[in-house]
Specification:
- This protein is mainly beta and 290 residues long.
- Strands 11, 12, 13, 14, 15, 16, 17, 18, 19 and 20 form a ten-stranded antiparallel β-sheet that branches. A five-stranded mixed β-sheet has the order 5-7-3-1-9, with no helix packed on it. The chain has a five-stranded mixed β-sheet with strand order 2-10-8-4-6, with no helix packed on it.
- A hairpin with a 2-residue loop joins strand 12 and strand 13.
- It is elongated.
């Protein structure tokens, strides 16, 4: 058994040398792949139809080679969201030509602004369906173009409200102050069209955070609801008469607080009080802005 084991490696080595020799005598044949046409760019692309004069979106197709003849590429446009040509968009062409001596060609999609002013979102699926003198590619024969309009107050991403608001100004009974920095430190969804945010550094005097609730059930008239809350800070920061006592905050009766998700602003109209004693009559207004 030991003698066989000694001989066997030599046999394997000889076979390996023979194989290598064969490869050197007979080199592998070079295979040139067929030319293909694919979309150029990411598989998922985004087009914001943000203004009435928004520029058209350019889509590029490209071949893997260059030849001395024109090549025609046909594209099919469909939409699982129901976008229709002439209603939500127009396309400059669905048949484009890659000129002789070149590798790419383009066409454009023009979003129709009036279709996207109320929060509509669409997906266009672009497929290369046929091509002339070149095969449809396997790398990127399809792309998706996501279309949406300008920022819409009813389509809020609540987490985007978080962060600093360095252009905060305030007024307490006619006495203005600012700008200074407030911060939305947390933003929590409380329903499909509502959320709660925590605001720090109101009054710019070491007060504790306050919580307000955002409501966008009516996107045309979004509002901020301010629940009554205490434990805000030392009332001596408002009036030395009440030093050592606690501050309460609530919405000011008859005044509407609001916000803008698109502009990242809040206009808070509050009433300050001394917990357990009563409320000051002056309106306390805080305008927060990025």
């Amino acid at each position: 058994m030991k003698q066989i084991m000694k001989i066997l490696p030599g046999i394997l080595l000889l076979g390996l040398v023979t194989m290598l020799s064969c490869n050197k005598e007979n080199p592998y044949e070079t295979v040139i792949p067929d030319s293909q046409v694919n979309f150029v760019g990411a598989v998922n692309q985004t087009y914001i139809v943000g203004t009435p004069t928004v520029a058209a979106y350019t889509v590029t197709v490209g071949s893997t080679d260059v030849i001395s003849e024109d090549r025609v590429v046909n594209v099919n446009i469909s939409s699982p969201t129901g976008a229709a040509s002439g209603a939500q968009y127009t396309a400059s062409a669905t048949s484009v030509t890659i000129p002789a001596g070149q590798a790419t060609a383009t066409f454009t999609i023009q979003g129709i602004y009036t279709a996207y002013t109320a929060g509509r979102k669409d997906t266009l699926v672009l497929d290369i369906v046929t091509s002339d003198k070149v095969k449809t590619g396997t790398i990127r024969p399809q792309v998706k173009l996501y279309m949406r309009g300008p920022c819409f107050e009813g389509d809020i991403v609540l987490s985007e409200m978080r962060g600093s608001y360095p252009n905060t100004v305030e007024d307490l009974g006619g006495s203005g102050y600012g700008p200074y920095t407030t911060t939305i430190s947390t933003a929590t969804s409380t329903g499909p069209t509502s959320g709660s945010v925590t605001i720090t550094n109101i009054f710019d005097f070491g007060w504790n955070p306050i919580t307000v609730n955002l409501d966008w059930s009516n996107p045309a008239a979004v509002v901020v609801n301010i629940p009554t809350q205490s434990g805000i800070g030392d009332a001596g920061t408002i009036s030395a008469t009440y030093a050592g006592q606690d501050i309460s905050v609530r919405a000011f009766a008859g005044q509407t607080s609001t916000y803008s998700y698109c502009q990242k602003t809040l206009a808070l109209k509050m009433q300050l009080g001394v917990t357990g004693l009563g409320w000051f009559g002056a309106l306390y207004q805080v305008n927060m802005a990025r």
